[in-house]
Amino acid sequence: MAVCAHVSTVRSLYKRILVLHRFLPIELRALGDQYVKDEFRRHKSAGPKEVKSFMTEWENYKNTLQTQVLESAGERYNSVKFGDHLSQKKLNDFQDEQISQLYELMVESTKSKRQFDIQEDRK
Asked: pLDDT tens digits, residue range 101-122?
């Protein structure tokens, strides 16, 4: 029964994050969606300690993004800043692989020319 509850909690968090990404600028949404999907897939077989940390950090991300989305209601995308600063303590706790991923995300999210031409569907 506990496994079912855990799976439900993970799915709920995953879906909520993807819903919140709908409020991001289209290029950040595409980047964020892919990153979330990859990370959740990568941690499917993680141990209990790693899962606890993983869920805590993604829950914090969801809460931060949800607050920023609500605060940005009615604002223009280019005047809204999404994201948060990482403390030196958090950075020190990262593994080398996580630092590399963070760097790649920073580079990709700050590119002036996007690799793909992503357009929203117009209805």
From this structure: 888 888 887 776 555 555 556 5
**Helix ranges restricted to H, 22-95:** 26-42, 48-71, 88-93
Amino acid at 38: D
∠28-97-3 over CA atoms, to 5°? 80
Give the length of the chain: 123
* Cα–Cα nearest to 47, from 55, 58, 37, 57: 55
Long-range (24+ apart) CB contacts under 8 A made by 112-120 are 114/27, 116/30, 118/26, 118/27, 118/30, 119/26, 120/26
What domain range is 70 assigned to? 1-74
Residue 107 lies in a domain: no
pTM greater than 0.90: no
